[in-house]
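The protein record quoted for completeness.
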Amino acid sequence: MAAPKNPEERPNAWLLDFGQMLRAAVGMRVLLQIIDQPRLHPVPCTPAHCRSVYSWQGRIMPVVDMAALLGHEPQTPRLLAIAGYQESPGEAPRLGGLLLSTAPI
């Protein structure tokens, strides 16, 4: 990544590590919280990439294992990123969890 032209500029994205050499960048405002050693609740009869939910601030949200979604081995959760997103402009924000191998940078 090229150095910022203005030394006062800050990066505007987090780099997420999903394990197994899988990484993605998301906007700074997408991540709401990082949970260490989350207590996940299994959901039977669900796909390998979304086998659990997490209770956060009174809401139940799906937890996605991006490694499994992309065809790799499911991972053992160590960190959970709580993410907010919208499917279209003006829509109420939705929440979800992403399993991470290491803390975002």
Observations:
- The longest strand covers residues 13-19.
- The first helix runs from residue 66 to 69.
- The CA atoms of residues 15 and 76 lie 19 Å apart.
